[in-house]
Amino acid sequence: MKIDDDFLAELGLAALSAEEKQALIAQIVETLEMRVGTVLASGLTEAQLMEFEGFMNRNDQAGALQWLETNAPNYKEVVKAELEKLKGEIKASAPQILASSQQQAA
User: Using one digit for the tens of pLDDT, what is the confidence trace for 37-63?
Assistant: First the structure.
């Protein structure tokens, strides 16, 4: 699933400005990465964590993805589950997010 303007519209946040959408998308991606990382890390050894971190430090996305497929084959399910949780939280907060946006614009 792509986290983009359509994703935000699905959550009731289509009325945000382009700048606010970009900031929120960045925040959602960062939060999702942290949550998925926390869940996956709980099932990995220290050595595996260091190995994976090496791919991330080298900005080797392809290598990191291949490593995940081998060492954490359930990572896609973890991403999907965490994204669904996050979507629910954002949807529940959408009225407050929009109200805050309108106050800032006024």
Answer: 999 999 999 999 999 999 999 999 999
**Tell me, what DSSP letter sits at residue 72?**
-
pLDDT band with cut points at 50, 70 and 90 for residue 105? confident
Residue recorded with tokens 């973890």: 78
This prediction's pTM: 0.86
Q: Cα separations (Å) of 15 from 31, 83, 88, 89, 92?
A: 22, 22, 18, 18, 16
Contact 21, 97 (CB under 8 A): no
**Residue carrying structure tokens 């964590």:** 49
Token pair listed for 11: 């959550």
Characterise 12 by phi-psi region: left (phi > 0), alpha (psi -120 to 50), beta (else): left
**Segments in 1-106 forming alpha helices (H):** 5-10, 18-41, 46-57, 61-71, 75-105
